[in-house]
Amino acid sequence: MNKNEYEELIVSVPDFPKAGVVFKDIMPVLRERYTDVIEDLGKKINWSEIDYIVGIESRGFILGCGLAQKHNKGFIPVRKKGKLPPPVSSQTYELEYGTDTLEMAENKTHKRVLIVDDVLATGGTMKATVSLCQKNNFEIKGISVLINLTFLNNLDNQIPNIYSVLEY
Predict the structure, then answer these.
(1) Which of 7, 23, 120, 140 could disulfide-pair with 148, CB 3.0 to 4.6 Å?
(2) Which is catalytic among the residues 7, 33, 39, 59?
């Protein structure tokens, strides 16, 4: 799909989840063109370098599982604290309104991963996920997101190999 086709389906919701934020609702895109989204998310990835897909809760699960199935890769969820059985690794990170914690199952062997999420905004969740992957011997070969809100983050300068279908 091209950028215009995506933008026709993405709904901008003003003042959600709080005043001043314009939420990009991707659910209409997933409903109407899921196969195209999965195809586009994986276009720039060297799949021979990927062992697992790491999906960030919750829409990263939807996208990551689609990529994992299409490319015959395993899937690893990153979840909010308390949602995964032990043993887990945890990473606490700052939010605009406090802190939050992400967890993933512990891993001891070196593996190569692609991190997947729907929207990369300020980058706190992504940085926490990168940290979790590094703690668990995962070599991050890339990050693939549907939308990168580059005006809210400068992660391209901090984290290599960020691929996005759309940028704002």
Answers:
(1) 120
(2) 59
Residue 33 annotated as catalytic:
no
pLDDT band of residue 18 (cuts 50, 70, 90) is: confident
Own/partner pairs, 156-162, CB within 8 angstroms, 24+ separation? 158/127, 159/126, 159/127, 159/130, 162/120
Going from N- to C-terminal start, the domains of the chain cover: 46-167
Identify the CATH number of the domain defined by range 46-167: 3.40.50.2020
pLDDT tens per residue across span 116-140? 999 998 899 999 999 999 999 999 9
Contacts 24+ apart (CB under 8 A), 123-127: 123/152, 123/153, 123/155, 124/93, 124/94, 124/95, 124/100, 125/56, 125/93, 125/100, 126/56, 126/155, 126/159, 127/93, 127/155, 127/158, 127/159
